[in-house]
């Protein structure tokens, strides 16, 4: 079912500092910041040869990242995103096997303009998993 690792997401308390650390100190290629109000985040991607890092900064009152940063003030790895060929088929199989699909269970359009879903961290080794339609 899961395919390529699309990105590893890091929640950050200071987006500019994170961008400077990765672009100036690590010499990485970073994108401009993009607000994603539907997800309550501002996103910057670090483009790597074999995958991406997704910096997440809270946007708005009910951001899931705000909650995460309250518990992890220095920031940290927030989720991993795998690509799937058919996100609806993947969702239905996962639900049939008892995995918790977060939100209302319907995919939302993510940062790559593709449908995404999230799976509860408690069902996958304490790690929040995002699935993105390949
Ligand atoms: C533009 C979209 C972009 C993209 O790539 O396309 C994105 O990736 S958007 C990313 C932001 N969106 C989301 O994260 C949506 C899914 N997240 C959620 O539904 C919640 O954040 C949830 C359910 C993971 C956690 O909700 P909340 O923080 O309200 O719950 P708790 O604090 O009560 O936590 C419950 C339990 O889970 C543990 N937890 C919370 N967040 C994480 C995490 N990121 N990784 C691992 N574990 C996590 C938390 O510690 C609690 O555990 P406990 O043992 O009970 O303390
Ligand atoms: Co993501």
From TrEMBL:
VOC domain boundaries: 4-134
Membrane-crossing segments per the record: none
InterPro entries listed in its UniProt record: Glyas_Bleomycin-R_OHBP_Dase, MeMalonyl-CoA_epimerase, MMCE/EMCE_epimerase, VOC_core
Major enzyme class: isomerase
The keyword Metal-binding appears for this protein: yes
Alphabetized SUPFAM superfamilies for the sequence: Glyoxalase/Bleomycin resistance protein/Dihydroxybiphenyl dioxygenase
GO MF terms held by the record: metal ion binding; methylmalonyl-CoA epimerase activity
Gene Ontology biological-process entries: L-methylmalonyl-CoA metabolic process
Source domain of life: Bacteria
The keyword Heme belongs to this UniProt entry's keyword annotation: no
Coiled-coil segments: none
Keywords in alphabetical order: Cobalt, Isomerase, Metal-binding
EC number: 5.1.99.1
Catalyzed reactions: (R)-methylmalonyl-CoA = (S)-methylmalonyl-CoA
Pfam families on file: Glyoxalase_4
Family from the record: Belongs to the methylmalonyl-CoA epimerase family.
PANTHER family: METHYLMALONYL-COA EPIMERASE, METHYLMALONYL-COA EPIMERASE, MITOCHONDRIAL
The protein's name in its UniProt record: methylmalonyl-CoA epimerase
